[in-house]
Amino acid sequence: MDTDKNLNRLEKQLKTLGQKVRIDLLKKLKNNQTPISFSRLQKEVLGHNTSSVNLSFHLNSLKKSELILSSDEGYSITFLGEQIIDKILSIEKILNNQNKSRVIRTSKYSKELFDINRIEEYLVVEGQLDPYLAKQIAHEVEERLSKINIEYMTAPLMREYINAILLENGLEEVRHKLTRLGTPPFEVSKLFNSNNAEINPKIFIEKVGSDVSEQFLLLNLLPKNLADLYLSGEIALLHLNYWALRPLSLYINTNTLIEYIKKETNLGAEILKIRNSSDLIIHFLDLLYVLKQFYSEDLLLGNFNTQFLSYFSLPNAMSSVFPIFSSQILRFNNGIKPSLTLDFNYNKQTKEQALNQANIDEYFLNSLEKHSKNYLKPLMLFETSSIFRSGLNQSFLKNLIMDNIKKEVILYNKSYTNLINSTIIQIPTPQENCVILDKILVNLHLISIESKQDDDKFFDLLSDKLSSIFELFSYKKKLVYKKLNSLKQWDSIVSGIFKSDTNSIFKNSLKSISFFGFNESILNHCGIEFDRTEKSESFAFKVLSLMKKIIIERNEVDGSNFVLSQPHYDSYLHDSWHNDITKCNNKIKGYKVELIRRESNLSMNKKIVLFKKFQSILDGGTLFTDNISRNEIELLKFLKTVNEFKLGAISLKDCIS
């Protein structure tokens, strides 16, 4: 009797499930933890066939068979309905496997049979999704794939299905975690087929890998709110591809490198005394290449001329040593920007010593110029007060300025700015080697647009951006520490050259905060440039003063080494923000980097006085630029004026017109 009863019940259930639309309804309800409304079921199950199917009739049939329930919130599946649909899915899977084997071409260049368990594992492990939800999403993927006539799928296509279903279910954060890294094939194809002679195989691989590194940083390593600041152009990060891997720059007094070479090699003090130049050059260059792995911008060598070039005597150096050394230095500088900055100064030298050193330096500079046809020269810093004091200005300085070597020269006064590197970050104590962790810039122009001429709102927004920058530095320190901490070579450098440990070197590192869109922000906020009216000048001064105040307070709270520095000279600041965020107030804006506008009508002396006012705030390095005549007399007169006015530094590359 019981057997007959069960058979009748089975027959009734099979009759109920005999129509595809009812199975589709059960599948949809199974994949949702909350009830679904009638209208949503109609839209998602029937699609465009709403007029040809009586949905109420099918839902009532499923209710009578106790497979679904209805409430004020909508329809949901019963425990019985869930068990039965699971069995139906198993039968479908058996039939699909019998009729065709769906193959997945994986990202590891292999072919594998489709396995729903792999999708569940992928969602749980990589997407960190709840196992129950992962099972639901996986079944939805399998169901959709069963409706398309495709036997051979790629892993990217499979991920597209998964991502679409995740978004439909409001699981955007999970989809974000599963975003795959890589450059679009179209972009790779353009690189591959490029006729640009500079895109050699090495650069091709580096470019594609660089793009992946940038995507990994923005999608996986940084919180979404901080990544969005970069993507929206509100802040600028330098060398995005290496941002999580290396500090920005290193400062090392050249004497430290010489001592390190003597300790780590057989090149002892006795050999150095007899000018064994070839060995010294080989070990010196080897060490530079080792160090190059651990910074993304530049290595600044303090006292380069007095601590290294002074080991070589003329005329032997001129005929053999300097040509070899200069050609290797130029090859070391093989990027689009100098990755090496060399310091030339004549402090603590008598006039006779300074003249002798200047002769050696000039031979080296001439050798650099001679071999630099296809290479980028290092950035070179010359300490002006020692040059003037030693009486070199009438000969050495004149030749330096009027020669082509000027293109990569910065003149600085150590009494007012100390050394500065290529990103215009000041080295506060040149006797101590240090790591420059990074330089992060805030877009003042976008703040001015959002604040709409409201001073208080401008300052509130600026404070918020600085808080985000502090947070970015925290991430940078953790990421770089994690990457470099396990490297024995880095540990050797930190202990041997920086006389520190890996943890302390990053804790005590310089952290530079800067800005761009400065002049544009003042013009937009005040209606007139700050060099034309006291009101605008006052507001500009308040902006930078607030930044300095917040930085000082932060340093006092946690003992950090944050500094406020001037924008450095880089192509994306000259042309436009490199994320194509260029349309502000319906105008294409190219951000300029100088504090005082070149087109300003102020006299030279007034420009210098105004610049000095801001120089007193910017403790991270200042660089004066202006259009200067090529006339030799006028140029030397200008340099004398700059020295007398006690400006921090000037760039000859950007001054001489």
How would you characterize this protein structure?
With 657 residues, this protein is α/β, with parallel strands linked by helices. The protein has 4 domains: 2-84, Arc Repressor Mutant, subunit A; 100-177, no CATH class; 222-246 and 426-591, no CATH class; 249-420, no CATH class. 55% of the residues lie in helices and 11% in strands. It contains 30 helices and 19 strands. Strands 6, 7, 8, 9, 10, 11, 14, 15, 16 and 19 form a 10-stranded mixed β-sheet that branches. α18 links the parallel β9 (340-344) and β10 (379-383). α25 packs across α26 (534-558). It is elongated, with a radius of gyration of 34 Å. The model is unreliable at 574-589 (pLDDT under 50).
